[in-house]
From TrEMBL, chains A, B, C, D:
Annotated source species: Halomonas binhaiensis
A GO term for molecular function: glutaminase activity
Any Pfam family: Glutaminase
Annotated protein name in UniProt: Glutaminase
ATP-binding as UniProt keyword: no
Catalytic activity entry: L-glutamine + H2O = L-glutamate + NH4(+)
Superkingdom of this protein's organism: Bacteria
Chain residues that bind substrate: S62, N112, E158, N165, Y189, Y237, V255
Length: 302, 302, 302, 302
């Protein structure tokens, strides 16, 4: 029945044929065909359901911020919160306004500034290569799949066109909230954003945030709750309230069109469609999750 | 066991003896003894648990915004969202800055500006008296208790000192987003904020938002989820992310020191302690909910 | 020669036939024919030059703020600056954003919030009628003309539609920076903004700010310099820098299309054309002053 | 008499012994003794007057922005204003907030972001070395003195600690308003800010902005007026209105404690005292100019 539902969601997305705009700031993302859709669901009873372009790897972009956050909390624990807040931002994902108002403390770890600080915290005094190795290992273990890679072209393209992120990084550094130099922190940041996965891999990787999956207790339940809370209030930039309202369970979107979501104790989900809405979240991906929520009654809110 | 836990929470709050500041802008609130605490829990199996000053009525203030939202959604349905947003504000509860930036559309129904618009929507073209009657009836039915009243002194005191709210109302009106005149809309608003309840009454009143309580389906499940989502992302002003992170289930605070919360399908909760933290939320109330969440494992996030 | 120049300016304005938009927020201003132009110049040698619709009285609106400022400085001296700043605002004339950021201290006496505070200071504990009498007397003396009146229709129309100004006034009052109640302060404010004058009257009235006119030392030279400095940096809302750049001497505009300007020790000027540019300043009025400056070399900047 | 006055100003500054804080962000400026003062005046009749530490070269910092603006206007004419505005900013000199609000168009050429764009315009496609040579030549010719140099230590120190300026530059580039790369534009910017001059040299260099000096018509009178207008409305960051009010003629300050000022057709002035007020302008320098204005009656405002 869930399999049939996913197939319906896939067909509906293609029939609506209203894909939104793909991200245009780097050639690698701008050239992607928007008319693509994939959805994968892993339920806690060990079943998996897939529909659509589930074998196409896509750039997970900001979805990677969830994994670096998990690692940062592992390394620093609560001290991370001295450097980054836990509040929705009420601004665009790459706004620098808020950063000035709050003197270099990003509002949360999922806007760009906050993710740069989180990356800096994971880096510590290690080499970027070593840190990226740790991030990839974490992801591969979570996904039970060694075939997760960084797309070097995407990473370098981000670096070349990353002036807005460089502005954020230099601003953070001017406030004393970036310990590595800008090139080092951003190099690492751009690389983990350039990880590519399929929805199959991403839905599996999300199991550790769900609770209830055997053998996927990679982090403690307290931390799982913390990360899900942050995804719920801050996971979709300035569309986070809308997502909570329409979908009703935690998720994190990326500008590559992916969304990773979890229905606690029920299922982990990955959806992908590269066209974006005005907040930078996948248009058909969000729509599919809303329909899935309505059809299944999956919601944390009753 | 839950009874013992609530008694521990009550004792801990009193032992910490760190009560925060009571709201000082009107004499009726400023003169309240901060060293008070009460907590009430209704579980879906029909049990109730209480500890502390559970028979002391307090001013529910912004908690009332949840009930007017429920009524506004009943009257207007989705059209309400043409006049008010569903996003966390990233600002103080009474900020007018955001209102100017977004041209008179408040970010959500729980900041003051949004609650004034919501009140205006519930009013429609009716008399304030009739509208307040409807709000009280709704609350009394939800609480199964006819002894819920408006404190007229508090309402009038708010009106006398309400320049910031008058500023918001006139600004809304200048943007065409207030249909009643300012006195009429604010008169109604100040009165429903001045409703007084005990935690016993408030915990019972919250059952309709919980799901799972027999005989408390006052609104449809879709609407319950919507309201809980809004409480989760916007229920504690600029401390909403923090509350989601620390407590892990939806709630709405008031400047009188009350917090109404729901653990979907599990329990409805009311806590009260009049001293506030820097965001205007009950200091010991929040702390107690955090401890309750930790001790019981109640969380929507896993 | 100056006479010929003014006639050329008048003819040019009419030939360009590009009048801008008249203020639309009250019927009395919205219904004015934009295709009008008048200019009057008084030189320190006692000559006067006029061209265009110089006998048509117009609503001086914000130009009146210069006269209330002069009176406020006379009553309070430097203590006025504890309640209002002297910096350009970088915002629209009726913005409330800045007021929140600077906690109720308006940036300068020429934005609406600052002029409301200035009016409140001139009022003190007197009756509005008495205060308006003083303002009118001052203006009549400055203009050597008893035929200067308040248009009651305009004043009442402003009051009826003045929600934005009421929002500012209530906000100021919530910050403790409005001593009279909002109705009293705004009533006085709307009335002095509704004074009507011709360019002939207004150019004459401006002589006291020029220096060098015999018999027009109504205030000391120090205060003249102060007021001119404020007109230079803040006299045209968020177009003040532009006006200083293009015109090169101090002036104050009003939303009725009037501009009062002074070339220190040389001449006083009034120009009127009711169509406005995007900042709310007279479009053809500004253009005419720019041409006048170029043709005569009148500039304080060399 | 003017000589005696300057000596009094020098003595008064030293007697007040209230020097403000020297700029602390680079060691070269932080280590300067704040108890220094110098003032130089050149009058249009060819006389010069000096008092205080007039032979001590100091870092002119933002005062250099006036000269690069003159050169940029020479190269681009009015096209410069497509890339930078002419309005006071209402913000700190290095704020990035405004830049986001106005989508990469700095408010004026004297805040840091605007000066970086202006430097970029002067650079065009030339080498930084060549451009700096042109700036130095211009300054040496203006000052009639070949002994004007760049302090390389200061320039390099700025570059090392210039994260806030790098943030601005990258932000500008992300908006398409920086044509050279950040290192190239900022390298040039930091170097021209690191020019060192005495008040004698700087007062002489300012003659070209005064009008009335024989042989100092380096730029046309129209441009002189334009630059003076900008210095009047934007020359002292968020203290520009205050400076216009208290001093009454145009000037430009630098964080090294220097102020260059002109009384059109009367005199050019340089004052230096390294301690700063809260806006980043020389505390005793501003005070001395205010006293000078009062004592001489020099003011453009009457």
């Amino acid at each position: 029945m869930l399999q049939a539902l996913l197939e319906t969601l896939d067909r509906d997305a293609r029939q609506r044929n209203d894909w939104g705009q793909v991200a245009s700031y780097i050639p690698e993302l701008a050239s992607i065909d928007p008319a693509q859709f994939a959805i994968s669901v892993c339920t806690v009873d060990g079943q998996e359901y897939h529909a659509g372009d589930v074998q196409v790897p896509f750039s997970i972009q900001s979805v990677s911020k969830v994994f670096t956050l998990a690692l940062a909390l592992g390394r620093l624990g609560g001290r991370l919160w001295e450097r980054v807040g836990r509040e929705p931002s009420g601004r665009a994902f790459n706004s620098i306004v808020q950063l000035e108002r709050e003197q270099g403390i990003p509002r949360n770890p999922f806007i760009n500034a906050g993710a740069i600080v989180t990356t800096d915290a994971v880096l510590g005094q290690r080499a970027p290569r070593e840190t990226l190795g740790e991030i990839l290992s974490f992801l591969r273990e979570a996904a039970d799949d060694s075939d997760v890679h960084i797309n070097e072209y995407v990473a370098r393209s981000e670096q070349r066109t990353g002036d807005r992120n460089y502005a954020l990084a230099h601003f953070l550094r001017s406030c004393g909230n970036l310990h590595n130099d800008c090139d080092r922190a951003l190099g690492t940041y751009f690389h983990h954003c350039a990880i590519e996965m399929t929805t199959v891999q991403l839905a599996r990787a999300a199991r550790f945030l769900c609770g209830g999956f055997r053998g996927h207790r990679m982090i403690g339940i307290e931390r799982v709750r913390s990360i899900n809370a942050l995804m719920m209030t801050c996971g979709h930039y300035d569309g986070s309230g809308e997502f909570a309202y329409r979908v009703g369970f935690p998720g994190k979107s990326g500008v590559g069109g992916g969304i990773m979501a979890v229905v606690p104790n029920v299922a982990s989900i990955a959806v992908w469609s590269p066209g974006l809405d005005q907040y930078g979240n996948s248009k058909q991906g969000t729509k599919a999750l809303e329909s899935l929520s309505k059809a299944t009654g999956w919601s944390v809110f009753a």
